[in-house]
Amino acid sequence: MAFKVLVSVIVPVYNAEQYLEKCLASICHQTLKDIEIIAINDGSQDRSLSILQKFAQLDQRITVFNRENGGVSQARNVGIEHAKGQYVTFVDADDWLELTMLEELYQACRLTGSHIAKCDLFWQEAEGSRQLHYPANTYRIYNAIECLHKLFTEIGEQHFGFASCKLYEKSFLDLHKLRFDEGMNFAEDTVFLTRAVLKNQSICYVPRQLYYYNVTNQCSLTRKAMVHLRHNYDVLYKKLLKELQCGEVYGEVKNSFLNYQFEGLLVILHQSATKKNMKYELQSFLKAYPDILKVKLINRNMKQLVFLKLIKMNWLTLSSTLIYMNVKKPKVISRC
To answer: How do beta strands 7-13 and 87-90 pair?
Structure first.
């Protein structure tokens, strides 16, 4: 490319024909023009590849890689390896961006010297999305412990757990060999971000909603992850615990991590088909993760507080019934 690439936008694509044009248009029309768009067609069986090729003919900044399906982590890693930009960001093919997102995050990194910048997202559902109110619009630098607390306890528009809605300095990723775990197909973003935060020790927070997260297209992804849900959570917790212990921060973020495990327990129980299965899943989870009984819950409603109290009293049947009666209507908040 003849121009200097400031940001490489990495877009894994798998059967996204319904949303792909909107996604690509929102990237191509960014106010920051010195970008490249690396689109990885990950074995799509619909019109996604032809849409990518059409856009690539119209915009020389787009490079298309066509490959057999290997999963989102592998696709993102391919993008990182080919990226020529000073910074990289990840956009899922069914999401889209505010037109100023890349420029705002780029300026935040340049002005603060941070290797990572983060914005908030619009939780885009069929009926619309919620507009956040910000009392101030100044940047804030969160240290590693603050980031991890938020990573394990925040959901929704300010959720820290997505690899998307962030900008990463490419040399920082390369220096620390930060890549996505290709053996994971569930919550791989959380592991990647935990590693990145521990290496960088901070994130620059831009108090703006700039990324549209398309909740309405998560059904097929969610179903695939739910097949072996408990196993997926076991793998996730093991990897996260190892990262936190190696980073010598587990003691400082233990309660937040236990909150993250409690969230996983609720999702697992809601996926159980019968009350009998719920009781078994509850007993099995508590046996594997007994420390969850010591958790001090953060930002939880009264039913969830009562549920935890019943578990502590060993009223497992009543606890299972309470779960069945909508203690929580779960939203799967991790890309699967």
So the answer is: parallel
